[in-house]
Structures are given as structure tokens and as C-alpha cells.
Known about the structure:
By secondary structure, this protein is mostly helical. Helix content is 72%, strand content 0%. It is built from seven helices and no strands. It has helices at 3-26, 30-47, 56-81, 104-107, 110-121, 126-133, 137-161. It is globular. It starts with a helix and ends with a helix.
Amino acid sequence: xxxxxxxxxxxxxxxxxxxxxxxxxxxxxxxxxxxxxxxxxxxxxxxxxxxxxxxxxxxxxxxxxxxxxxxxxxxxxxxxxxxxxxxxxxxxxxxxxxxxxxxxxxxxxxxxxxxxxxxxxxxxxxxxxxxxxxxxxxxxxxxxxxxxxxxxxxxxxxxxxxx
Length: 163
């Protein structure tokens, strides 16, 4: 095995688990997360010379997000055209008595889950999060503050219900 292959194997081993977990937190099922994560690294290999080394992690997460969105849109179109297939993903109401029994994480919006995961689980900076999500860097701080606030409120509601 050549040094380049060993280097990629180490890069893959270091970053695959984080990309896969990120996709799960966005709502992908484990098999889809695996497929999208694999495709993310294929894209990395295809474009590696054009990627700045310092932004390698951000590139991976942005690519994974784009591929996941593409898969989501593709599946939604397939479901829309096939009337006999029922959509398997549950949609959670934002309010109502039943919503309090759902896990706090699942009651956050997809954007809130994404921002909180990237900031606190992956440790990305605001600028890196902006690059991954395509949002304005100036707005990341505000959006994260809102996501943290919503999480805290939902957590307080959940803890109050269990008392």
C-alpha cells in the first residue's frame, strides 16, 4: 500500500464516524447515512487537489449535507409519484400535549439540530458552520442562540412533565 492510500485510510478513519453521526442527527436512517457518508469520501477523492487542507472537515460536512438533501428530495419525489407507498418518516407536531412526550432533540427543527450538532458535537467555528450550511456567517451566532434557547425551553418542559 502506498503512502497516499495509507494517508487517506487514516483520514477516512478519523472523519467517517463524525460525518455519519452528523447525517443521523439531520434525520437520515443509518443505512442512508452510511451511503451518503461513503459518497462524501468518494467526492473528496475526486476533488482533493482543489480542496484547501485547512477546510477539509468543513468540505466533508458541506458535501454530506448537500448529498443528504439531494437524497431527501429524490425520495420525496419518488413517494409523491407512487401513491401506493406511504411515507415512513414521522412528522412531529411543534405543539400540543403529545409533543411533550417526544425526545427533546426530535422536537427541534432540522436547522436547529444541524447548528447545535455542528457547534457543540463537532466543534466547528461560526465561520466553518456558515461554510457548511450556506448561511451568512453573521447570522450563525443569532441562530445558535435561538437554537440553544429552544432546546433549553423544551428540556425544561420535558423535565417539568416528569416531575
